[in-house]
Structures are given as structure tokens and as C-alpha cells.
From TrEMBL:
GO terms for molecular function: hydrolase activity, acting on carbon-nitrogen (but not peptide) bonds, in linear amides. The lineage of its organism: Eukaryota, Sar, Alveolata, Ciliophora, Intramacronucleata. GO terms for biological process: antibiotic biosynthetic process. Coiled coil: none annotated. The keyword Ribosomal protein does not apply. This is Peptidase S45, penicillin amidase.
Amino acid sequence: MMLKNKNLLQYSKITTTKLLKQVEVTETPLLVLQAKNLTEKHNKITFDEGSGAIKLYGNPCIKFQEMRAALYHHLGVDLEVEEEYLEWDKKQKKVQWETQIVKPKENKNLLQNPTDFIEKNLEPYPEKCDEKLKLIIDRHNVNVKIQGLLLHSYFENKPLIQNDYCLIFITIVLSIVISFTLILYITSTSQYNGIQINQHEKYGRIEIKRDEQGIPHILGKDKPSAFYGLGYSECQDRLWQMEYKRYVGYGKLSSLFGEKAIPVDIFMKTIGVEKSAIKALEAFKDEDLQILQAYIDGINDCANQLPYLPLEFWILGLKFQNWTLLDSVVTIEYMAISFAYNYQFESINDRLREIFEDEFVIKFCGGTEPYFVFNTTILDDQDLKKVGLFQEYKGDLQKDLKKAKNNIKKVALEEFQSIDKLWEETKDFYPEQIYGKESGFGSNSWAVSGKFTESGKPLLSADPHLLHNIPNFWYQSEIVWGDEKKNDYIIGAHVPGSVDSTDYFEVKLNDDQTKYLHDDKWLPLKIRTEFIQVKGKEENQEVEIKYTHHGPLLNIAINNFAKNPLQNHEKTTALAWSGFQDEHETSFNFYKLSQQKTLKNVQFYLKNLDKFGLSIVFATADNHIGFYSTGRLPIRKNPKQGLFIQDGTNSENNWMGFTKPDELANILDPNKGYIVASNNRISSSNIIYHNQVTHNFNQSRAKRITDIFEQHLKSGKKFNEQIFQSIHSDVIDPVCQDTFLVYVEIVEKYLDKYEWKFKEKEFKYLKKTIQFVKEDENRCFMSKDKFLPTIYVIWQKKLKYLLFDPEFLQKKAKQKNPEQVKNIDFYQKLQHDYIANSGYNVHFHTNLVREWGQNLKNNYEKDYDFCENQYNKNVTGNKCYYDVILALFQTLDYIKINQVQTYGQLHQRTFKHQPFSNVPILNRIFERSIPASGTGDTPNVGPLDDNFKSIYSCNFRAVFNMDEKGKNYWILDTGVSGNPFSPHYADQMNKFAQGEFYEMKFGYKNFLSMKAKYKLVIENKIETQKSEF
């Protein structure tokens, strides 16, 4: 076909992305938007400005009604749409597509008032699309912006690239960038080889050998020398990561990133990380300081000898300042508060308490028996009796709640602060900027007695879960000194402890905010002044930190599932944490624990890790396995007191004291022969003081791992390293097993009743879908290579969004307390951040679906008011069941629009960089991404965000065999290097994703015999003259 006006459409040729496609036009300009990696038939928009012939092909970011309204508003034309439907091809095992043409009827409301129609009827763009794909329409200028770059511009027939000079300039820039990249790549590992000179004669000769993955194996003449080598190698690989932690810990991010980081700095200064570190450092013994100083000397010598600092230093214009003893302790101390996170749940519970009665809130969050999804505890009651910690809980939930409620006076709230303002201040910063991505999201660890292993010695696995970050928080290395063998007596793995060591207390201040009310007396606040250096500001910002006897005034909690992780709960509160009490020297006890060679000494150091709230599973060479819950725990008058924000004006709510080391949960060699700690409850409430229990954590991972152990023990087979490796990769979802078929049964039974709500083909595919799910017996195997998990996770998410509609929440709040009702935006955020889009409600949702399943069996119908929403107001019958059907319809629509073929296509694991994941173009250099298996309820964990991407997962896996001749294994989810141009930046990523491991070889003999990929020798000046290297 001939082009009558060839110049009407000119565009830049972006050969690497192929995002734009030129099409034949006749009389008027025609624009086609072609999405990346999709067929020509799908996901495009065509429109003719002259004739008004416009077509939308299932674009994931521009919905039909949105596009129709926008086009009419801007161009005065109406829209024709192609709708597509799913077909499953069982032979080819992929999704096929059917297409039909539908011409929509004229919408009078749209034509009369398009702006009002858009505001009232159209949802906003999905967040991912708002950033990645926008179509901006104007009568005179049609622009297509993709990922923030102007790729096409049609204005007065002028192309984007107008002449050869522009092309030459771009070519020169690209050549410089490519050359610079090659230089960085070539030199990224050069520092791993050769001879370096240190200025410290006391450390002598140090050798650092690296294996094929770049993992350092370090040999020194003595312990300080070996730790010098550790500091040196860690600096080579992770200097920026260390620097960033230093800025976070001291509360100095604002000096790098300006005003938006101020709330983060205030948070860190308020909890007093630096202050705590100074106290902790004072308690260090001389021998400990000697080792720590050697490590620091290694860091500084390395940094000052580097040919160039890491790229992040260049981008930010930073110079390296020598590392200090205090810097190291600061990075440890601020990690301790990340393990104390129960106060976050108190803030959430308190918000829900404004809407619902207390018992419903506890039921919703799984706050106590019998509301847990799976009551899988680390210790059973027999274990508690064995160690003398059993104390029968005779309390009554109703009485406890009533007592707690009576103790809570409604104090006058300070003027509400704007949540929107806080969001604007912190939207470019995430929880990892506060906790340096060490935030304790969860972990798995498990051990089995030698009675049940092939070697006759214990096996232990470590499986920590943190946000996806690159470089990884964990650093693989081995240190050896002298000809000493590895310490093969103890191996331990820790997970964040499932204990409540924090409370929020609501405080009433006097008019000038210098005193607080307690037992009808005005007590003086302790006030400390801090200064925050802000980039771009001449003067430092002054911040007053105010303290009550409970702790510092703080009204911010962290919600890692929210768009804005810094959540202001709008009350004046003091944070009480057991870690704020008098300091003990615990920072170095982790190292000391690893060096012990007797069970008695191991137990001593476990008891004295009193600041870190951890669950530690360990195994010893003399055939013991054990568990310790570490940290100092508060004793409360009412064990249910810690579920909500407490009244700080009443001494009845004050903590009564703290548990003694011997009163913390522990077990040595349990009768069942194994231990599973996966952030599940430590025990039942029958433990002394009844408060060593978690209030909110999901138990599903522990349930699945426990089932694996029980099934294997029943088979009579022995455990080995390969079986432990397979547990790390297990993706069977216990919640899915309890809920997926119930969804299907509801659709089967009630779909015909609502046939009139769907078109013929929609109804047909709903029927086919439930049959498809029923036929797959492995429907709850959440593999990235399967398609069916896609239906489950989207269906579950869509259903949660239909429950507890924001308008319903606002109405319930008005019924309970009209004076505290907030605008609809508040309830939209509450529904999005806590109810629909987090693991917070897994207990309630799973139990609700279980109840539905039981009702179906008993042919009994029960509806709930929280199922009502804008879609089912006019529906007769069970609104909850209609929501299940509608959620499935929305699921198929989402799959169709996004053309999802496998779960891994939907569920991506993106490794983010601090802080350049938030910077366009730079994120392309630093980030890595890979398809992921698992859900928030599988041992191979992978909770999903609003766009079904993985939020966090396991970052490091290890299998330890206490048999001297046995093999040990480990692997990181990315790589050992923090240099994005290094071959070891993400070289372990693909193997990790496949569930594979590297054998961990260590010890003095192995060091001497290993064939190193790289070898570095560090000598002082005197020894260099004698070197035979």
C-alpha cells in the first residue's frame, strides 16, 4: 500500500528496545504503540485522529474505559475495542488467545461530562504502569513516553532526531560509556591478585585465596592477622555497602540525599543507635578490641590502596573516611532494633481497633489461640516441662481483653499529622534505608538429631529471609589462623525471634511539650538535642529527642508491605524496648559463641545474647541439637497487653520487670528428634509469664517443614544433605492446600446463579478455569515454571481487595466512634497496605475460607457484612461467594491483559541496590532480576507485592553436616562482590534459583591444597624483603 504522506510519521530507531513500529498510513497520521516482546496482534493501540477509528488491544496499562474517556475528552472521538479470552492448550501446555470485535454502545454520561466520568468511574493507572508506560494525548502533539524517555514525538512533522550531528553525538557518548564499562569490568578483579604492603608489622604475612565464585579464604599467622585479612577482603568486595550502613546507623543519610531522608535520620537518632554503640563499646574487653581493631586496620589499608573507589562514591562525590571501632559497633547495634518489630503490629491493631471490637481485631491478626492458621510451635508443652518452663495458662481471652481495655484511657490526641505529607517526604526511601535491608522479615532454620541421619551426626540448615538486595547482606568468607583446624564443635543458625520485646505507650504532653502525664502527675521529659546535616542546606537541622520513662517519643512504625513503609500512627507515643535498658556487652558475643568447644560454654553465651531477640538453632559435634530464644523480655501484668498501643498515663500498664536468662525458652535434644524454627510461635501460652509468644506471624512455613520431617521419619529413611537441600527449594503451599479448592467449589456451586452478570464467553471461560484447577493434583506446587500458581495468587489477591471495602471500613468506624472518622483516603490506604496487600491477615483470611468450605459441606449459608462492596450492592444472595466468583473473573482478565504464560513471568525477584534502584538509568546498572518460585507461605518463601513481584525471600542457604567427613554446602542469591562490573556480582544467582548449592570446603589443609582462581599476599615492609612468593 502506498503512503500518501510519508513524512507524517517519523520516529527514532531504537533497535535495542523495538518499542515503536511504523505503519502504513493513507490520509491521516496513524500511531501504533507496540509493547516489548509481545505479538503484533496484542497489546497495541491504534487511532486515527481524522476519522476517529480507534482500537485498543488489551494494553496492560491503559484500560478500555480509561482510554475511551481520555480520547473523547481530548480528541472528541469514540473507541472501538478488541476483547480477548483465554484458552488452555493442554497438549502444548500454554495459553492460547481468542479474539472478537465488540463495538461499545454510546455512554451518555461520558459524552455529557467526561471529566466527571473519569473521576468517578475510572481507577488510576497501576503503579508499575504509571512509571513504565504513559500515553499522553493532545490535539497538536502526540507523545509516547516509555520509562520516562521520550522515544517518539510527532509535532509539525518534525522527527525526534533531526540531523546527523545528533546521531554523531549519541554515538560518541555511547562509545565513552561502553569503553568506561569495559575498563571497570577488566579491572574489577585485578585487586584480587598480587602482593600488597601493609603498615602494621604485628600482622605479618596474610594470604587471601579466592575460589571460582570469588569467595575469600584467608590465612593469617594468628587470630588478629586473620581478621585483618577479613577486613581487607570485605573492603575489596563491599566497601560501598559498609559505607552506606555507616550513614544509616549514624542517621546521616540526609547529608547524601537531602530533605527526603530527614525522617529516616530522625528515626535512627531517636532510637539512639550511636548512643547505644558508645555504651556497648565501653564494655568490650581488651582482647576483643584487639581483634576488632585488626579487622578495621584491614578495611582502612585496603580502602587507601584501592586504585579507585567503588562507583557509588564517584556518583555521590564522596571521599572515604577511615573506619573506626565505633563504626563497626554502630552497624551491629542498629541491626538489633530490626529484630524488635512487634510494635509495628501494635500500630496496625490500633488502627483496626478504631473500626472493630478488640476480639475481632485479635481474630483478624491471629493474636492468640485459637485464631492461628497453623498452631505449629517450636517447643511443645512436653519440652516446656522438660526444661522447667511450663506454667499452665488459665487466663480467659474475654477477661484479658476486658482488663486490657479498662486500663486504656482515651487521652487527648495531638493534632493529626498528615499521612500524605509523610508519604511525600519518604516515598523515595524504603525500609531497607532504615534497617540497611537487614530488617527481620523472617527466616527458616532446622536441625535433626544424629539418630535420624545417615552419618549418625546432626544436620543443620540456615535459610535467612531479607529484602532482595544487591549486594547481599551476607558475606561468604573463611578465616584460618596458624595451623589451627576449623572450629567443628558448634554450628548455629538464627532467625528473628518470635517474641514481643516492644510496646507503644500513648503519652499526654503539657502545652509546651516539656512534661508528660503519669498517674495524674506531670513528669519532666528528658530532652536531647541532635543536629542533622542536610545536603544543599547551609545550616544543620536541629532535632529534639524527648524521653519518658518508657522510652523515646516516636510515632512512626514500619510497614514493609505499604507503599509508604514509614507509617505515622497519628498519636503521641513512647516506644519501650527491652534493648533500651542498661547495656551489656553482647555485640561481640556472636563471635565468642562460634569459638566455644564445650556445650556448657555454648549455653552460657546463648543466655547472654540479651539484646538480640533471636531464635537460634544449633548443633554440636558431640551429637546435640538445641534451641535458644535470646533477648531480654518484659514481664507484663496482662499477657495480651502487648497487642495494642497502651495508655502511658497509667502505671498499671508499666512493665513489671524482665525475664532472667534461665527463664527464656530453650530445649536441648527434644524427644521428637528435630527442631524447626521458621518465625513460628515459640510455644503455647503455657510458658512462664505467658508472653514469650508471637502475636502475628504466619505459621505456614513451619507447618510445611514439620510435615516433611514427620513424613520422612514415618518412612523409616535417614536424612542426608540432599534431603536438607530439597527442603530449601520446597514450594508446596499449605494455605493453598486449605483454600484453593474451596474457591473452586464456591464457583462450581454458585456460578450458574450469576450467569446473567457475565457475557457468554466470559461464563464459558470461568467454567473451564475451575475444571482446569480441579484436574491438576499439584495445584499448590508454586513453581516458577507452572501456570496454575498464577491463577491462585492473583485470585487470592483480587478477593482480598473485594473484602473490607474502604467505604465499609469508613461506615464501621462511623458507627463505632463518629468523632474519629477519617476521610476515605485513610481507609483506602488501610485496606491496601494492611488488609489486602500483606501477610498480616493470613490467619483471618485462611480461617474464613476454611469456614466457607465447612459451610458448603453442611449446605449452610452465612454472609458477612465485610464482603459488601461497590460491585455486589445489587446482588441478591451470598455476597462473599459472589466476591469469589468476581475475583476469578478479574484474575482471568489480568492474565489476559498481561499475557501471562508462567508463574515466573508474573513473579519476578528483583535485587535492588541502595540507593540507586530509585534512580532511572542507574538502576539498569546496579539491579538484577530473575523469575521466582514460592509464595509467602512456602519454605522457599516469596511474598508478593501489589504487582505480584517478590518482596523478599531467602538470601543465603547453607547445609551443615557435623560429621567430620561429611560435606557442607552454601550459596548466595547473588554474588560475593558489590561491584556491578565484577563477574562475581551475581554469578551465584541462577544456580540459587534452581535450588543448587556449592560445596563449602574449609580448614587449614584445604587452604594449603586449594587451587585458587585468585591469590593475594599482604605483607609488611620487613617481611616483603624475605618473600619467596
